[in-house]
């Protein structure tokens, strides 16, 4: 069963730039009544407020700070859609001297942060009719790239958690969507050296909107992602998305 965006209230983490900003704008174009922009620095969304007025509401947020996550859920108590876009990346291999420290940093934001967002917002979504939770995971959750070993490991973990949330939140009528972009033209993509192959973040926003409307779990929005998704399709359909009992 799909989720209709028209008239709904959403929250997007990391909404001040890159993919998050485009997602926020995409939701407003689809008729969302209001979008909370969950960001570290609330002044960074001033331009969005200038453009969209009171349809954009800034809220202080940081995936590494549990108190801010809980506070955001209290402030945004009217949301029925949460898009957890924020995340961190360090270009670290398994043999780098700081590999363990990098993985700890990425796990704290990309995995523990996701779990805390789910714990904080699941009751809110339930109270507001179920709604939807969207998690930005990446093709790196399915394929490890050695120069980004620790980031890939953290995204593999976040994808695993997302799979669990799909089943856990189904009981309360919450649709969960797992998004797996390839190289996207953002600041993070630039820092990772993806400029020559990066594609538009609008593809991600469009993919999320389409998946919400169709009630689909996986989103593979760009060229690389579509190639990975095509190769992964049978396993995803027959294992990840199938009803399977433990043991």
UniProtKB/TrEMBL annotation:
What Gene3D superfamilies is this protein classified in?
NAD(P)-binding Rossmann-like Domain
- Its Enzyme Commission number(s) read 1.3.1.104
Q: Name one GO molecular function term.
A: enoyl-[acyl-carrier-protein] reductase (NADPH) activity
Which keywords describe this protein according to UniProt?
Oxidoreductase
Signal peptide interval? none
Which EC main class describes this enzyme?
A: oxidoreductase
Q: Which family does it belong to?
A: Belongs to the short-chain dehydrogenases/reductases (SDR) family.
Q: Name the PANTHER family for this protein.
A: 5-KETO-D-GLUCONATE 5-REDUCTASE (PTHR43669), ALCOHOL DEHYDROGENASE, PUTATIVE (AFU_ORTHOLOGUE AFUA_3G03445)-RELATED (PTHR43669:SF3)
Q: List the protein's name.
A: Enoyl-[acyl-carrier-protein] reductase [NADPH] FabL
Q: Give me the gene this protein comes from.
A: fabL
């Amino acid at each position: 069963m799909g989720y209709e965006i028209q008239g709904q209230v959403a929250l997007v983490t990391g909404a001040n730039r890159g993919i998050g900003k485009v997602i926020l704008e995409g939701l407003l174009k689809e008729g969302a009544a209001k979008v909370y922009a969950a960001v570290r620095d609330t002044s960074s969304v001033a331009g969005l407020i200038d453009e969209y007025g009171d349809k954009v509401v800034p809220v202080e947020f940081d995936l590494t700070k549990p108190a801010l996550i809980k506070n955001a859920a209290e402030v945004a108590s009217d949301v029925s859609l949460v898009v957890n876009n924020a995340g961190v990346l360090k270009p670290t291999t398994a043999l780098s001297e700081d590999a363990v420290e990098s993985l700890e940093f990425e796990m704290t934001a990309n995995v523990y942060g996701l779990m805390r967002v789910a714990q904080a917002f699941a009751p809110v979504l339930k109270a507001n009719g179920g709604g939807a939770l969207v998690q930005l995971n990446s093709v790196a959750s399915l394929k490890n790239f050695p120069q980004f070993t620790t980031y890939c490991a953290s995204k593999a973990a976040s994808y695993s958690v997302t799979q669990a949330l799909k089943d856990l939140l189904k009981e309360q009528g919450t649709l969960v969507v797992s998004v797996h972009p390839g190289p996207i033209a953002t600041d993070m993509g630039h820092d990772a050296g993806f400029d020559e192959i990066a594609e538009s973040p609008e593809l991600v926003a469009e993919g999320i909107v389409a998946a919400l409307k169709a009630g689909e779990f996986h989103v593979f929005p760009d060229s690389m992602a579509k190639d990975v998704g095509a190769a992964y399709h049978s396993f995803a359909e027959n294992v990840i998305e199938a009803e399977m009992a433990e043991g």
